[in-house]
């Protein structure tokens, strides 16, 4: 028989049981607090939370996810997750992912689309994990989700923008490059590498350590190039010779601009080059041929005329001397009028037979009547040729002794005309006092006019209205450098073109020869590059949500205003502004409404401040106000500015996608004192802001 416990033993046992009960109660209370804390944290978290059981049913969703998707708890709890939230096109794929999750215990990361109640799709980044019971059996799966829809859209736009820039860079016909002021290439495109005979841009960049010595044929060109960049910041159509990989030389036209860093120092050069070797060769050949042609025609001892449709179309100075008539009198006058009456029939007969394609005697003699009435015997050498794309007769009138000279002049003239027509691909115009007297076939192809339609038109007739005055001034002034303008075709269509004109003397007249080249693609590439750079510059200095200056930009502006204030002994004030209880706005309305509030806040502040005051997003719901150019004794003015901002925010309801939302702000204020730095001023303003919050918020507080 067991021994009965004593009273003392029973009392001790009771005390032990009471202690165990107290400890258990403490554990239960602690567990309840932890569960309550976890539930509160889960519901208040700015990320999505969802738990799904083995049957694919939703067993728990936090308020953030419900609010963002437009559901209530009773609409989703116990419902099939895939059917409720996942677009039909993605359900099969996500179902397979769920099957894998049941088998693994490691954390998972994936992205997939879910639907709001109204059918809008959101892209969510899920961080999930499967939960197993003590027996190792799958119990449920939970996921924490971040809405990355907007981020993905921004990333996609940035990627597309970068691809467009890269496509322009890689596929541009011109050679594009970036280089350092010290003389090394940073990057080049394939066209640039091919132009210089390199297999790839990388080979060119790595193989060129000194641009001046390895790239330029003449060091003086590099010196002039750098002087222009240092003086003007850019060069346009700078022509020089460069050295190719195989040691050969080519001519290029270079347009470059200098890119500066924040300190105003040259960071790099960016530009494009065009191979103009062929153009240089053609220009030189054309100039040489033109000079020879002019010398031969103007100094010929024989009279040279062109007869077309029975009248004189062209005559040289010797023809004037031979007939006694001026060029104007000879022009459009029937050639037969100068022939002696007794010889007219012979001359007309041979002229008609020649036009019919027969072969009459080309060289023969006849008499002409000088303007003075005197008779002269001349020997004619006549041949058919094309003048302005139509049949005509080229006539040489000369002494027998001058026969050889006339034949040589004819051959040189024919060679010159043939070379002129076949050598150039650019549109060429010949004009006198702005009136076109000749144009080549390329001009017809570029502008859509027939050759005859060019003759007699004004040079500005092929120029768009907005550029007519500019082009006219350049033509009249004899401007001989390349320039850009918008040209206009016969059908009214417009395009960017490069014009390059030169003045020549011909038959006592000043003739302007103008080449025209379509540069539409080149101008479009330059414009797209410019817009892309402007976009990048804006994004680098502005908050993407509110459009206000970002933290770095507003601090840079503050530093600049400090320098200006010190130099001019001006007063400068800053206010560090915080939206009171902004977290409550996000918790109550959601982050999208919170974003609307931030955007409306910035607009309201900007409309309240003076035009030259500055506002920037300092971080989260904190904004930095920079108030420059205050009077020396401006305490009252300073306070009125900030109070006007505070009162305007307090009285103004922020319009959001969920209706109007009211907010208040607290502002910590300080002014420049001596040689304070920007960091020191911000620290003082931050301390003042802390006091404003401690004193009840919705108020101003000035630094000590």
Summarize the structure.
By secondary structure, the chain is an alpha+beta fold.
- In CATH, the architecture of the largest domain is 2-Layer Sandwich
The Rg value, from CA coordinates, equals 44 Å
Mean pLDDT equals 83
Binned, the helix content reads 40-55%
**CATH structural fold name of the largest domain:** Alpha-Beta Plaits
Main beta-sheet annotation: 5 strands, antiparallel
CATH hierarchy, class of the largest domain? Alpha Beta
Low-confidence stretches: 401-410
Number of strands: 27
**Number of helical elements:** 24
What's the name of the CATH homologous superfamily of the largest domain? Reverse transcriptase/Diguanylate cyclase domain
Molecular structure report:
This protein is an alpha+beta fold and 704 residues long. It has 5 domains: 103 residues, PAS domain (Beta-Lactamase), CATH 3.30.450.20; 118 residues, 2-Layer Sandwich (Beta-Lactamase); 140 residues, Beta-Lactamase (2-Layer Sandwich), CATH 3.30.450; 96 residues, PAS domain (Beta-Lactamase), CATH 3.30.450; 161 residues, Alpha-Beta Plaits (2-Layer Sandwich). It contains 24 helices and 27 strands. The strands form 6 sheets. The protein has a 5-stranded antiparallel beta sheet, sandwiched between helices. A 5-stranded antiparallel beta sheet has the order 7-6-10-9-8, with helices on both faces. Strand 3 and strand 4 form a beta hairpin. Helix 21 packs across helix 22. The chain is elongated, with a radius of gyration of 44 Å. The protein starts with 6 loop residues before the first helix and ends with a strand.
């Amino acid at each position: 028989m067991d021994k009965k416990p004593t009273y003392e033993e029973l009392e001790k046992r009771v005390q032990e049981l009471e202690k165990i009960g107290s400890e258990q109660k403490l554990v239960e209370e602690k567990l309840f607090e932890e569960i309550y804390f976890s539930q509160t944290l889960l519901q208040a978290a700015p990320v999505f939370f969802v738990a799904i059981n083995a049957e694919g049913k939703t067993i728990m969703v936090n308020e953030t996810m419900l609010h963002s998707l437009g559901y209530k708890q009773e609409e989703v709890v116990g419902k099939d997750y895939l059917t409720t939230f996942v677009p039909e096109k993605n359900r099969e794929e996500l179902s397979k992912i769920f099957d894998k999750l049941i088998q693994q215990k490691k954390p998972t990361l994936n992205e997939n689309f879910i639907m709001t109640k109204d059918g809008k799709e959101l892209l969510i980044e899920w961080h999930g994990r499967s939960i197993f019971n003590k027996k190792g059996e799958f119990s449920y799966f939970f996921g924490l989700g971040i809405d990355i829809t907007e981020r993905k859209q921004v990333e996609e736009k940035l990627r597309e923008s970068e691809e467009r820039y890269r496509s322009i860079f890689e596929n541009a016909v011109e050679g594009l490059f970036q280089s350092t002021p010290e003389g090394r290439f940073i990057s080049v495109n394939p066209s640039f590498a091919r132009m210089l005979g390199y297999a790839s841009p990388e080979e060119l960049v790595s193989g060129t350590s000194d641009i001046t010595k390895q790239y330029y044929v003449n060091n003086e060109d590099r010196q002039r190039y750098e002087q222009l960049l240092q003086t003007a910041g850019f060069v346009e159509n700078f022509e020089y010779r460069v050295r190719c990989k195989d040691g050969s030389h080519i001519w290029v036209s270079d347009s470059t601009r200098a890119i500066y860093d924040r300190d105003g120092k040259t960071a790099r050069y960016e530009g494009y080059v065009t191979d103009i070797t062929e153009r240089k060769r053609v220009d030189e050949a054309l100039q040489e041929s033109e000079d020879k042609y002019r010398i031969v025609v103007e100094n010929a001892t024989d009279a040279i005329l062109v007869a077309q449709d029975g009248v004189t179309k062209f005559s040289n100075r010797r023809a004037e001397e031979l007939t006694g008539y001026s060029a104007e009198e000879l022009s459009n006058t029937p050639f037969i009028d100068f022939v002696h009456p007794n010889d007219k029939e012979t001359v007309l007969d041979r002229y008609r037979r020649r036009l019919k394609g027969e072969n009459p005697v080309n060289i023969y003699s006849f008499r002409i009547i000088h303007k003075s009435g005197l008779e002269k015997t001349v020997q004619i050498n006549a041949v058919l040729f094309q003048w302005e794309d139509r049949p005509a007769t080229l006539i040489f009138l000369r002494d027998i002794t001058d026969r050889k000279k006339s034949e040589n002049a004819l051959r040189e003239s024919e060679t010159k005309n043939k070379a002129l027509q076949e050598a150039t691909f650019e549109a060429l115009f010949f004009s006198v006092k702005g009136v076109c007297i000749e144009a080549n076939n390329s001009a017809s192809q570029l502008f859509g006019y027939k050759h005859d339609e060019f003759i007699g038109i004004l040079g500005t007739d092929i120029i768009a209205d907005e550029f007519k005055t500019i082009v006219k001034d350049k033509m009249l002034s004899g401007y001989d450098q390349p320039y850009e303008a918008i040209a206009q075709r016969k059908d009214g269509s417009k395009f960017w073109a490069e014009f390059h004109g030169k003045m020549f003397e011909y038959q006592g007249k000043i003739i302007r020869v103008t080449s025209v080249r379509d540069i539409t693609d080149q101008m479009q590439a330059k414009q797209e590059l410019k817009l892309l750079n402007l976009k990048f510059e804006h994004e680098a200095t502005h908050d993407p949500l509110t459009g206000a200056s970002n933290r770095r930009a507003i601090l840079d502006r503050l530093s600049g205003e400090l320098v200006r204030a010190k130099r001019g002994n001006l007063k400068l004030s800053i206010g560090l502004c915080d939206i009171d209880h902004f977290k409550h706005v996000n918790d109550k309305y959601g982050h999208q409404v919170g974003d609307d509030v931030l955007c409306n806040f910035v607009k309201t502040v900007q409309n309240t401040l003076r035009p030259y005051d500055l506002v920037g997003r300092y971080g989260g719901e904190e904004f930095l106000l920079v108030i420059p150019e205050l009077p020396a004794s401006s305490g009252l003015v300073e306070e009125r500015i900030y109070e006007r901002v505070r009162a305007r925010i307090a009285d103004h309801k922020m319009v959001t996608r969920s209706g109007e939302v009211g907010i208040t702000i607290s502002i910590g204020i300080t002014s420049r004192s001596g040689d304070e730095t920007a960091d020191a001023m911000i620290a003082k303003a931050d301390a003042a802001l802390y006091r404003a919050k401690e004193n009840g918020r919705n108020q101003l507080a000035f630094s000590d």
